[in-house]
Write a structure and sequence with these properties.
It contains five helices and five strands; from the N terminus they run H-E-H-E-E-E-H-H-H-E. It is of the alpha+beta class and about 120 residues long. The chain has a five-stranded mixed sheet with strand order 1-5-4-3-2.
């Protein structure tokens, strides 16, 4: 098993060039409040349908991320992301440094439906 999602801190310098390209390719998607200020919720079944290189969503800590724009830029390759496409990748998310986890922020599109009862307004 190779590196997982966004573990940039220990990459060799030439790999860091891919990281800079990846950072530049992270285009903000519809945020979780982009729909007229309403938070978007998705079921696990809805997330599971987004499991290809051209349509790739991941879940971490009940948050849903559209990582399609980052798939080809991942320093460890496409497979590192696609092996979790449409599923929960919390364990891989937690594996990464804080700076790497921050890269997910612009890719947030909503929350799992089951997390709705856990959110306090």
């Amino acid at each position: 098993a190779g590196a997982s999602l966004w573990q940039f801190d220990s990459l060799p310098v030439r790999s860091m060039e891919r990281v800079e390209v990846a950072r530049a390719s992270l285009s903000p998607r519809s945020t979780s409040r982009a729909n007229n200020g309403k938070v978007q919720y998705y079921t696990r079944e809805e997330v599971a349908m987004h499991n290809t290189v051209n349509d790739c969503w991941l879940v971490a800590h009940g948050k849903v991320y559209d990582v399609t724009s980052f798939v080809h830029s991942h320093p460890a390759g496409v497979r590192a992301i696609l092996r979790h496409a449409g599923t929960d990748s919390t364990q891989d998310f937690d594996f990464h440094s804080a700076s790497a986890r921050k890269l997910w922020r612009p890719l947030l599109i909503g929350y799992l439906e089951e997390a709705r009862s856990c959110i306090v307004s």
